[in-house]
Write a structure and sequence with these properties.
Layout: H1 3-16, H2 24-39, H3 58-73, H4 80-95, H5 100-113, E1 120-123, E2 129-132, E3 137-139, E4 150-153, H6 168-172, E5 187-190, E6 196-200, H7 209-213, H8 233-242, E7 248-252, E8 255-256, E9 265-268, E10 274-277, E11 291-293, H9 308-312, H10 325-329, H11 331-346, H12 353-356, H13 364-375, H14 381-386, H15 388-396, H16 403-419, H17 426-446, H18 497-501, H19 507-512, H20 522-527, H21 529-538, H22 549-560
Parallel strand pairs: 3-9
Antiparallel strand pairs: 1-2, 2-4, 5-6, 6-7, 7-8, 9-10, 10-11
Helix pairs in contact: 1-2, 1-3, 2-4, 3-4, 4-5, 11-13, 11-16, 16-17, 21-22
């Protein structure tokens, strides 16, 4: 099987699949480029495109084509175009699987076909990141993204199926060159009393983890940028370890501290770069344990992120209008950051909690973060990885926890939430504090001698307190919200909900009433029309100021005319 034969089969298959040339940009284009490249080599037959004739349904042929492409990709010296096309074929073939079990079987078979290849990331010239045999990719919330043995991740910023590549780089003429005016790749050394901080501005992604959390050491707009004497050694070590780009390092007594050892993983950060950990080789270079790769396509130091996503306004889709506590908190990374700060900074120096947690397992912070993630509406990480509710109850059984321990735990976890940068809006903190109080008191109760907690319960699910959600009220510090102009109907024009009434209610009005009914739902507003009208006339709705008289009259007219949709 040759690349030319794959191309011929892909073209034939493309005509038989759904309308719209689904293989044109992601399979046929890169295969054609690979064939053209092969035609320039000494063996001209390598680029010849044979005649093919195939039988079977399009779905069956797609699966066979994906397997053959994977076999060819697994050979030494596979060109970028073949690898990119293989990634697309694997993805499509798995999507065509009949069910989740069949998809898992296909992924396992494809993984076996290229199992001899190392886990690595290669940067295609003016194209995507070619990710081989990576098994852990998560979004910015820590939720897993489905992986395939061969993947092509967007780096031009224009894909409509992010993080996967859809071939947009070819359409927009993306170039992967470095900017000659980029910040030099040079390491500076800042010596302190206890710790020497190493800093390379040339590879900094400007995530702000250091400046936001330790501004007395990492100083925005000041020179020198790093002042090691501005913080405690443990705080500096923690900030350096949190740096996702690898720009920061540290030396103690003249010896460079080793990077943390983590499992290979890729995080698709929110509105920012891919954050790589675990030493995944980049273009064969395995010297970095962690680094950040540009995802917006505008970095001056491609493929390394230079922070340009901030300046160009690169943004992922926003949160849903009804985010969970897990989403609003920042997901598993934010909760893990909080629990690590709690158990590394506060617990060891506390006279009450220090002895209590002296023998905790090394992964205890991750376990607590997984519990909180699941409790706050995230993925069922604690249930799937650590044993769920029964395991948590067993962890506390017989420990006879006291109110003093509980109270100190609740106090310090709140401080850790501040240090970790969890949201500080009243709505989130009310829900967070409510769970900390409830959960810690349940733990004390379950830990008493002779306690018999109900068995086999699910992990509890926590929610916004009294349905008070971010945006459901008008902040006293927020600038005035200007109302959008509403088109008033003519006197002889029927009043309709969609055209005239729904536009009267802003998104914030809808959120503020979501715990009762939906102001953008015709049926809900009809059901409560009389009560709404009464409050509109009194000026008590909306809460930030009465409607103009003509808007109240319009609503009253809609009610009188029979609530037209």
């Amino acid at each position: 099987m040759s690349t030319a034969a794959l191309l011929a089969r892909a073209r034939l298959l493309d005509r038989d699949l759904a309308p719209g040339e689904p293989l044109a940009e992601t399979v046929i284009r890169p295969l054609a480029a690979a064939v053209a490249e092969a035609a320039t080599r000494p063996d001209p037959e390598a680029g010849a495109e044979p005649e093919v004739a195939e039988t079977g349904s399009p779905a069956e042929r797609l699966w066979e084509l994906a397997k053959d492409a994977t076999r060819l990709r697994a050979l030494p010296g596979a060109p970028d175009g073949l690898i990119e096309a293989t990634a697309a074929l694997q993805h499509l073939a798995c999507l065509f699987a009949e069910d989740a079990e069949s998809m898992a079987a296909r992924i396992e078979e494809l993984a076996g076909l290229q199992g001899g290849l190392e886990t690595r990331i290669d940067v295609a010239a003016d194209g995507p990141y070619l990710v081989t045999n990576a098994t852990k990719i998560t979004n910015w919330l820590g939720e897993p993204i489905q992986t395939f043995p061969q993947m092509a991740l967007c780096r031009c910023g224009a894909s409509t199926v992010k993080p996967l590549c859809d071939g947009s780089h070819a359409r927009i003429g993306f170039k992967g060159d470095k900017d000659p005016a980029r910040v030099p790749d040079r390491q500076e050394s800042y010596e302190g009393v206890q710790v020497t901080v190493l800093d390379n501005r040339g590879i900094c992604a400007h995530s702000g983890f250091c400046t936001d959390r330790l501004p007395t050491v990492f100083r925005v707009g000041e020179e020198p940028f790093v002042a090691p004497s501005g913080g405690r050694a443990d705080e500096i070590v923690r900030a350096v370890r949190a740096c996702p780009s690898g720009a920061l390092g540290q030396a103690i007594d003249g010896r460079t501290a080793p990077a943390p050892r983590r499992e290979p993983a890729i995080e698709v950060s929110k509105d920012g770069p891919y954050r790589i950990t675990g030493g995944i080789p980049l273009d064969g270079d395995a010297s970095r344990e962690h680094y950040s790769l540009c995802r917006c396509g505008q970095s001056r130091n491609k493929p390394i992120c230079s922070g340009m996503h901030y300046h160009v306004g690169f943004a992922d889709p926003p949160l849903s209008e009804d985010p969970t506590l897990f989403e609003w908190a920042g997901g598993l990374p934010a909760l893990t950051r909080m629990t690590r700060i709690f158990y590394e900074k506060y617990v060891p120096h506390d006279d009450l909690l220090g002895p209590l947690f002296a023998r905790m397992s090394p992964d205890h912070p991750q376990r607590v973060a997984a519990w909180l993630a699941e409790t706050f509406g995230g993925p069922k990480l604690y249930t799937e990885q650590y044993g769920g509710y029964d395991h948590m109850v067993a962890e506390h059984a017989g420990k006879a926890l006291t109110e003093q321990w509980r109270s100190r735990w609740a106090q310090l976890i709140s401080r850790a939430a501040d240090d970790a940068g969890l949201p500080t809006d009243p709505e989130f903190r009310a829900a967070f504090a409510a769970y900390v109080e409830w959960g810690s008191r349940i733990a004390v109760e379950n830990s008493q001698p002779g306690a018999t907690p109900p068995p086999h319960m699910p992990v509890p699910q926590w929610w916004w307190v009294c349905e008070a959600r971010p945006g459901s009220r008008v902040s006293a510090l927020a600038p005035p919200v200007e109302r959008t102009e509403v088109r008033l109907p003519a006197s002889d024009e029927p009043v309709g909900f969609a055209d005239h009434i729904k536009p009267l209610f802003r998104a914030m009005d809808r959120r503020s009433m979501s715990f009762v009914f939906d102001l953008w739902s015709h049926d809900d507003v009809v059901r409560h029309a009389d009560a709404i009208l009464a409050r509109l006339r009194k000026g008590s709705m909306p809460c930030d100021g009465a409607w103009p008289a003509e808007h109240v009259d319009l609503f009253a007219r809609w009610v009188a005319e029979g609530h037209a949709p």
